[in-house]
């Protein structure tokens, strides 16, 4: 055992509850067990939040208009969502995760990353960790199932958890990532939606293996900066850390939208506004953020979050925005979104700290910092609407 | 293949080759070493497709041949036997195994192999344009440059050093974006045509491990650099990217100049390391016109403080207070080969230059460091 797990540079678990909302309803009302179930808006314009596995063979999917789902599966039971109850069960699930690792990064109510590096001594080899985690979730919730993927990186763990869904466990030991990933479709790469998928397909790349075997620079030429990342992912390389929120304290700003937004371009202006508000708040409190989190709520009320650490910690609006913008690539933006939020966490006092500037970017950063301060002063004197970004005027 | 080889000689070459092999190779054959017995020697090759090393050691070859064997088994076995005087008998068997036995010993090892044909094709420098220079010169430049080379999590374009070859001049530049090394040697150098090449960090690290002495031959062909020293041959892909415009960050308007004893300041900084903040590693240097300097560490996380004092060997200009990441200073002071170093500064916000004090004929070495800024 020691020898086997010694080859694991990191042990990352991605745990994802199976058809969570529907499974909770079936748990609370055993009469629903084994029957097709649709949780979602029951009104005329309602959409499906979650379809139980029994409803899926009929072609029912989340985000589908409820009317359409009902037509496909007329015998399905339809229930309105009960978010308070889902939150309660989610609390139990996250409680189990925290028993396995102090480093838990929740992505939504029903999904999280765990960094279990070095925990082999307590829980056994990676396979055993996954087995025990799944058993404890089932026990703590009274019977809900969770699918888990275990790998040496976040990306591979995430793909692995989906591999044997529902109620499955997939372990991808380091060194076997490419065997696992290469036969899969390019749409399994993080950040590849239908549009990017089409671009890759036209360039002759249908599988992840096709992407990996190309020169990274070709992919970069094809897709820009994100191409480099996709190429690394295709080789199973993903250095991102599991980011847990160490301090409860965070500063956030979010907007609930009147109409659902679709795609990066529609979301960006709202993210920019949120970054500006959070940056201003940080500077006013004399705090620096060690991490930033983007929060999106889908049209079907699924909350999704992605976060990253900020090194060095910052109070700069431009840095918050640029890291948050990069995080957008990790969301599935083909879904309509009804809420856009940004939060700063891992807050530390800012004054009197030493900051390392770069040789090559010093003038820009200093300029951005001075601009932030000047805008703060103007808004202080003339109100928050006094100065706005030109790019906010269009939308 | 059937050979008899001195275990110590084999171990020396093998240890170089093992540095190239990636422990987490995604393509199985890259975990293997290529062994080729011919004439009076055994050739060893290792590659990770970016960097490749070929080397050889003398061997009595009864039957020539080539085979590949996993580095992680072959390496430790040879190392274990290299402590003994007995030569090793190594041969391939009919079952495609590699048989290893110390002469006169009862121990025997049989390792699984993969055929030579599965191994990536290795390049030759062939008719490439080449030049020769003393290996010590290149080694010193590379050692100095390595201090500032960006690490793997930095931007791609700075994870290597820029090598500029021109008539009578070898220049190396590297940066991790917080500091920069510019090192230049002038001497008899017959560069056929001026050349700029971006050499990956791993290539530089592996070059340093090769023994020095004698000359080194550098060749360039098809976006590769070939480095030949005696029977050792290292080559790698060059980085196909643009190195940052380094010229503009080397300051020319520094008007405060301190000359200090290298070991004296190094010793003081090392004493302060345990007190410094783990994240910023901040140390403040306060120079006074009289030529005295105070070094201050204040750890805001723990409340600890440290003060050291230093008398400069020379000082020009007004007083200046400037703060650095102390690890950056220690890195430079550790490799600088001279008794004294020269520090040129402008103010607390502008980058400073550290240089070894030596005659210009021995080459230029500028280490540019961005100070820490107090927010």
Averaging pLDDT over every residue of chain A, what do you get? Answer: 86
CATH topology of the largest domain in chain B, by name, is DNA Polymerase III, Chain A, domain 2
Structural domain count of chain A: 3
Provide the CATH architecture of the largest domain in chain A: 2-Layer Sandwich
Radius of gyration of chain A: 22 Å
What is the share of helical residues of chain B?
Answer: 10-25%
| 3D shape of chain B | elongated
Note the run of SSEs of chain A as H and E.
Answer: HEHEEHEHEEHHEHEHHHHHEHEEHEEHH
Number of structurally distinct domains of chain B: 3
The appropriate CATH architecture of the largest domain in chain B is: Roll
Percentage of residues in DSSP E strands of chain B: 35-45%
Q: N-to-C terminal Cα separation of chain B, in Å?
A: 67 Å
Q: How much beta of chain A, percentage-wise?
A: 15-25%
CATH-level-4 superfamily name of the largest domain in chain B: DNA Polymerase III, subunit A, domain 2
Summary, kept brief:
The complex is a heterodimer of chains A (395) and B (375). Chain A has 395 residues and is α+β, with helices and mostly antiparallel strands. Chain A has 3 domains: 1-172, Alpha-Beta Plaits, CATH 3.30.70.270; 182-234, DNA polymerase, domain 1 (Orthogonal Bundle), CATH 1.10.150.20; 251-386, Dna Ligase, domain 1 (2-Layer Sandwich), CATH 3.30.1490.
How would you describe what is shown here?
The complex is a heterodimer of chains A (395) and B (375). The radius of gyration of chain A is 22 Å and the shape is globular. Chain A has 395 residues and is α+β, with helices and mostly antiparallel strands. Chain A has 16 helices and 13 strands. Chain B has 3 domains: 2-118, DNA Polymerase III, subunit A, domain 2 (DNA Polymerase III, Chain A, domain 2, Roll), CATH 3.10.150; 130-247, DNA Polymerase III, subunit A, domain 2 (DNA Polymerase III, Chain A, domain 2, Roll); 250-369, DNA Polymerase III, Chain A, domain 2 (Roll). In chain B, strands 1, 2, 3, 4, 5, 6, 7, 8, 9, 14, 15 and 16 form a 12-stranded antiparallel sheet that branches. In chain B, strands 13-10-11-12-25-24-23-17-21 form a 9-stranded antiparallel sheet. Chain B has a 4-stranded antiparallel sheet with strand order 20-19-18-22. The chains are: A alpha+beta (395), B alpha+beta (375). Chain A binds chain B through residues 9, 174-175, 177-178, 217, 228, 235-236, 239, 312, 350-362, and chain B through 24-26, 153, 156, 175, 177-180, 240, 244, 249, 277, 279-280, 282, 300, 323, 325, 351, 368, 370-375. Strand 13 (354-356) of chain A pairs antiparallel with strand 26 (372-374) of chain B.
């Amino acid at each position: 055992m020691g020898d086997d797990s010694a080859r694991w540079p990191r042990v990352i678990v991605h745990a994802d509850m199976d058809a969570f909302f529907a499974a909770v309803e079936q748990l609370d009302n055993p009469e629903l067990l084994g029957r097709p179930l649709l949780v979602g808006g029951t009104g005329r314009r309602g959409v499906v939040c979650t379809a139980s596995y029994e409803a899926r063979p009929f072609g029912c999917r989340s985000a589908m208009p409820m009317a359409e789902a009902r037509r496909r599966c007329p015998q399905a039971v339809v229930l309105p969502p009960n978010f308070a109850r889902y939150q309660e069960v989610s609390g139990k699930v996250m409680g189990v995760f925290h028993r396995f690792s102090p480093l838990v990064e929740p992505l939504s109510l029903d999904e999280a990353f765990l960094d279990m590096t070095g925990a082999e001594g307590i829980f056994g080899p990676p396979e055993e960790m996954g087995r025990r985690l799944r058993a404890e979730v089932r026990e703590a919730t009274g019977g809900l199932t969770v699918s888990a993927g275990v790998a040496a990186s976040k990306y591979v763990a995430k793909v692995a958890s989906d591999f044997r869904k529902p109620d499955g466990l997939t372990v991808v030991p380091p060194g076997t990532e490419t065997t696992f990933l290469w036969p899969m479709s390019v749409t399994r790469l993080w950040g590849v939606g239908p549009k990017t998928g089409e671009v890759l397909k036209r360039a002759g790349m249908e599988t992840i293996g096709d992407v990996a075997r190309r020169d990274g620079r070709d992919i970069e030429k094809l897709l820009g900066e994100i191409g480099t990342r996709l190429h690394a992912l295709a080789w199973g390389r993903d250095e991102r850390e599991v980011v847990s929120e160490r301090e409860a304290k965070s500063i956030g700003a979010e907007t609930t939208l009147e109409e659902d937004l679709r795609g990066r371009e529609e979301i960006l202006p709202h993210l920019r506004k949120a970054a500006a508000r959070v940056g201003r708040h940080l500077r006013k409190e004399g705090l620096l953020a060690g991490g930033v989190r983007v929060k999106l709520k889908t049209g079907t009320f699924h909350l999704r979050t992605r976060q990253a650490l900020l090194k060095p910690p910052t109070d700069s609006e431009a840095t918050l925005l640029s890291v948050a913008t990069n995080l957008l690539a990790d969301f599935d933006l083909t879904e309509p979104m009804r809420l856009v939020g940004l939060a700063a966490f891992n807050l530390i006092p800012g004054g009197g700290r030493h900051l390392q500037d770069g040789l090559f970017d010093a003038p820009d950063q200093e300029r951005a910092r001075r601009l932030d301060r000047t805008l703060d002063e103007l808004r202080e004197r003339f109100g928050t609407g006094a100065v706005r970004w030109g790019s906010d005027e269009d939308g | 293949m059937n050979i008899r080889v001195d275990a110590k000689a084999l171990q020396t070459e093998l240890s170089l080759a093992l540095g190239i092999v990636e422990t987490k190779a995604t393509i199985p054959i890259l975990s293997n070493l290529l062994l080729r017995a011919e004439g009076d020697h055994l050739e060893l090759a290792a590659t990770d497709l970016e960097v490749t090393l070929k080397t050889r050691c003398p061997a009595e070859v009864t039957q020539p041949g080539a085979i590949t064997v996993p580095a992680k088994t072959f390496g430790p076995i040879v190392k274990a036997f290299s402590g003994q005087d007995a030569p090793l008998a190594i041969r391939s068997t009919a079952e495609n195994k590699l048989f290893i036995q110390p002469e006169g010993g009862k121990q025997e090892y049989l390792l699984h192999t993969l055929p030579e044909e599965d191994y990536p094709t290795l390049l030759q420098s062939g008719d490439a344009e080449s030049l020769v220079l003393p290996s010590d010169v290149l080694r010193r430049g590379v050692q100095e440059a390595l201090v500032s080379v960006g690490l793997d999590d930095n931007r791609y374009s700075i994870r290597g050093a820029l090598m500029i070859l021109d008539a009578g001049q070898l220049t190396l530049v590297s940066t991790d974006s917080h500091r920069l090394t510019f090192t230049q040697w002038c001497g008899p150098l017959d560069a056929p045509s001026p050349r700029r090449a971006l050499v990956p960090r791993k290539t530089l690290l592996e070059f340093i491990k090769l023994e020095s002495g004698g000359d080194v031959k550098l060749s360039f062909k098809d976006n590769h650099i070939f480095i030949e020293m005696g029977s050792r041959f290292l080559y790698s892909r060059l980085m196909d990217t643009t190195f940052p415009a380094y010229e503009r960050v080397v300051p020319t308007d520094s008007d405060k100049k301190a000359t200090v004893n290298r070991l004296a300041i190094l010793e003081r900084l090392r004493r302060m390391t345990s007190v410094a903040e783990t994240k910023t590693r901040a140390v403040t240097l306060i120079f006074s016109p009289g030529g005295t300097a105070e070094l201050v560490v204040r750890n805001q996380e723990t409340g600890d403080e440290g003060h050291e004092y230093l008398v400069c060997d020379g000082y020009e200009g007004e007083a200046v207070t400037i703060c650095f990441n102390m690890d950056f200073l220690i890195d430079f002071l550790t490799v600088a080969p001279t008794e004294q170093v020269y520090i040129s500064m402008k103010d607390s916000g502008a980058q400073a230059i550290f240089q070894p004090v030596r005659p210009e004929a021995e080459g230029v070495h500028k280490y540019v460091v961005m100070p820490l800024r107090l927010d």
